[in-house]
UniProtKB/TrEMBL annotation:
Residues 156-176, 356-456, 470-504, 535-597, 683-729 are annotated as: Disordered. Residues 702-722 have a biased composition (Gly residues). GO terms for biological process: proteolysis. This is LPXTG cell wall anchor domain-containing protein. Residues 724-758 form the Gram-positive cocci surface proteins LPxTG domain. GO terms for molecular function: serine-type endopeptidase activity. It comes from Brevibacterium casei. The keyword Ribosomal protein does not apply. The chain crosses the membrane at residues 731-752.
Length: 758
């Protein structure tokens, strides 16, 4: 249900230096008549707005059958519009926002632009690669325009200049606008600033409604001979070294939609800042007037004393955890009910990528590797040059010493068939063939269990999911939003992804991507349900190896009566009645092999709780063989914490348990971040996938205060439950392998604690 905000009065404070306005809600007037405008009809909307000055409308949205308009002031025409239609809500006091990075010394996170009318600076958003493997940088579209702030006229494109010297940028306390000396970054690729339609009513027969293509988004094609690209967002703490890549606020693992709550930004003017996603505003408005042009996105609120963004941050990275959600577009101050705050507008990244048709990858698409990923066919020492500076992906031509130049035309690396130096294309016409669609069956998993499927080997699979409508179980999945992720396949074509936590039915899609070619979409259903108590523990009673605990009281196996003494269950098999025969799958006769599962408790924990010895995060896995060595790997979390491995032995029930907590109690915030975990067994076969999951350490204002029970027990998963000593491996914060990284005078360490067995 759409929220109406009808009780807030507003007095906007104009931004004297920037000419920026902002927005809040006032009470909408009630219509006198019963008329309703069909908001889905462009003609009806255009006719209704024909008398409205578009220069006075600064926010526009259509939600739940209502047309929402934000205006600087209510003119007679606006008042008449309200009277004629009772599904038009007009919010007074919504001022026009000005774009950052105009000609008045504005900019972003580390690069300069020039134009005939002047120069400026803008912030880089996110670095990565396009589908052909070429390095690109995402930023704001208005940075690519020669824009006149006074008239709103775009006279042409700007020109990309050099990166800005970090040590002299405003985020580092300097005045900025000093070239780094590394050379011009590259050239503009795609760029759009509100579709180029200025909000002036020149056409009396048409009203400039927002269009789906109204975005503030641009791509810089990076010159590989001068720069490389690295995934991640800088935290600006290494600015004095003029190398922002050495200290990251986060790695970026995915692109997604903004979520309610805290959002962060990194930019060359204000560095790393935080704000709150303005959910109530975003529920009413999809577009904001940024410098006279509609821009699709979402609003963010922050304190005036600690603004989310300022001029010069345009194009800067907006992120939540390891998810990229947008780039800075514009903003300004606002005052409501005596409270002054800063309002910022973010061009949403997932929407901008879709509308622009930009194929953006967080890893090089040829191999998913790092900055210099070489795939060498290894014949006769032949080299394949993917770029002059070696930063690209090298695919060796492989035969007769022939060189295959993968960077000559920018089209990506050619994979040679290995004969006489000739290049082997994926199809006769030189274009890659469309890959086969993934294979995935309808499946039932436990909360956060593994969703599996198969596709082309060593490829990528785009996976989306959302609660399934029209089923009773879908009700349970409310609050589990639609999401998406891209996962790799292994050499056999298997892929896995962690499933939802909330119980219910989910609609999944999967699509294979090979060499920038997409397959048809495969759809399937995943049902998430808790383990049935009657079937969960087939191996709990070690002596009753032949009684099938998964049965519902009856036993179809003539050799094993579920109600008989376990010692007699195998009489017909002429075996020792006291011993269970081993099946081919290593389970005991008459017993279903235990399903593997992983439980992580809690999934999210406050940093202050994480550093308490008797709390932390407990990880329990089951479904392994008695005595099997079980290895838990914790991947690197925050930038200053290095991942490690720890091995435990599965108990008689096939269960192994681990506990993780932090030892740096004086500085718990160093642990904030997401940690991915993977569990494997020594007896794993080639077709068995690891158990995977994750947990998050968050700030105390976000955490749930969890971390296990106060008595240190394991939650009834088969372990001991006593307080345990700090034994096992340690996660240590390492500085380039040069020893412990000291943060605030305390060594940053994570300790993995073994859980005692009964």
């Amino acid at each position: 249900m759409q929220k109406k905000l009808v009780q807030s009065s507003l007095a906007l404070t104009a931004a004297t230096a920037l000419g920026l306005g902002s927005a809040f809600f006032a009470s909408p007037a009630m219509a006198d008549g019963p008329q309703k405008i069909d908001v889905q009809s462009d003609k009806q909307v255009e006719k209704a707005l024909a008398e409205i000055d578009p220069g006075n409308v600064n926010a526009y949205g259509v939600k739940n059958g209502k047309l929402n308009l934000g205006v600087e002031k209510k003119t007679d025409e606006i008042k008449d519009l309200e009277k004629r239609f009772d599904n038009v809500d007009v919010i007074e006091g919504v001022g026009e926002l000005k774009p950052y990075a105009a000609n008045d010394i504005v900019g972003g996170a580390g690069y300069l632009v020039t134009s005939p009318s002047g120069g400026g600076a803008c912030s880089t958003g996110f670095s990565g690669w396009d589908g052909a493997g070429n390095p690109i940088v995402l930023t704001a579209g208005h940075c690519a325009k020669d824009y006149n702030e006074d008239t709103g006229v775009i006279s042409g494109p700007s020109t990309v200049d050099q990166t800005e010297q970090p040590s002299t940028a405003p985020a580092a306390g300097g005045d900025g606008f000093n070239r780094s000396g590394l050379g011009v970054i590259g050239t503009w690729g795609f760029s759009s600033y509100g579709s180029g339609d200025y909000l002036v009513g020149d056409d009396p027969n048409g009203w400039p409604q927002p269009k789906s293509t109204d975005i503030d988004f641009a791509v810089i094609n990076v010159d590989e001979t001068k720069y490389g690209v690295k995934n991640g967002v800088t935290d600006w703490t290494s600015a004095s070294t003029n190398d922002l890549s050495t200290k990251l606020a986060t790695d970026i693992k995915q692109v997604g939609s903004e979520q309610p709550g805290t959002v962060q930004k990194s930019g060359r003017t204000t560095g790393v800042t935080e704000g709150e996603v303005w959910t109530e505003y975003n529920e009413a408005f999809d577009y904001a007037n940024i410098g006279g042009y509609w821009v699709h996105g979402f609003g963010v609120r922050s304190d005036v004393d600690d603004p989310f963004s300022q001029p010069g941050d345009s194009g800067g990275a907006v992120f939540q955890g390891d998810t990229a959600v947008g780039v800075i577009s514009g903003g300004g101050p606002a005052e409501s009910n005596g409270t002054t705050f800063q309002f910022g507008w973010v061009a949403d990244l997932d929407y901008s990528l879709q509308q622009s048709g930009t194929d953006f990858r967080l890893t090089p698409p040829d191999n998913g590797g790092g900055d210099d990923a070489n795939a060498d066919a290894g014949a006769d020492g032949a080299d394949s040059d993917a770029g002059a500076d070696g930063a690209g992906a090298n695919a060796d031509a492989g035969a007769d010493g022939a060189d295959s130049d993968a960077g000559a035309d920018g089209a990506g690396a050619n994979a040679d068939a290995g004969a006489d130096g000739a290049d082997a294309d994926a199809s006769d016409d030189g274009n890659p063939e469309k890959p086969e669609a993934p294979k995935a069956e309808n499946q039932t998993i436990k909360p956060n269990g593994q969703v599996t499927g198969t596709a082309a080997p060593n490829a990528e699979v785009k996976v989306t999911w959302k609660p399934k409508a029209g089923t009773q179980k879908a009700v349970k999945a409310q609050g589990a939003p639609q999401d998406n992720a891209t996962v790799p396949t292994d050499a056999e074509g298997n892929f896995t992804i962690e499933g939802p936590e909330a119980e219910g039915d989910y609609e999944y899609t999967a699509q294979t991507v090979v060499d920038n070619q997409e397959s048809d979409v495969t759809t399937f259903t995943v049902t998430v349900q808790a383990a049935d108590d009657a079937t969960a523990d087939a191996a709990a009673e070690g002596d009753d190896a032949n009684a099938d605990a998964a049965a519902e009281g009856d036993d179809s196996n003539a050799n094993a009566d579920a109600g008989a003494d376990a010692k007699d269950a195998n009489a017909d098999a002429a075996a020792d009645s006291k011993d269970a025969n081993a099946d081919a799958d290593d389970s005991k006769d008459g017993e279903a092999p235990a399903e593997r599962a992983i439980a992580i408790e809690p999934k999210e924990i406050a940093a202050s709780e994480f550093v308490k010895e008797d709390k932390g995060v407990k990880i329990t896995v089951k479904g392994f063989d008695e005595g099997e060595k079980v290895t838990l790997e914790v991947m690197a979390g925050p930038e200053n914490v290095k991942g490690i491995e720890l091995t435990e032995t599965a108990n008689a029930d096939g269960v192994a348990m681990f506990s993780i907590y932090g030892t740096s109690a004086s500085n718990p915030s160093v642990y904030i971040g997401k940690y991915d975990v993977s569990v494997t067994g020594a007896n794993d076969t080639d077709d068995e996938s690891p158990l995977t999951g994750s947990f998050k350490v968050v700030g105390d204002d976000q955490g749930n205060g969890g971390g296990g029970s106060d008595d240190g027990k394991d939650g009834g998963n088969g372990g001991g439950g006593s307080d345990l000593p700090r034994t096992g491996a340690e996660l240590t914060g390492l500085a380039a392998g040069a020893g412990l990284l000291l943060v605030g005078g305390a060594a940053v360490v994570l300790t993995m604690r073994r859980v005692k067995k009964n």
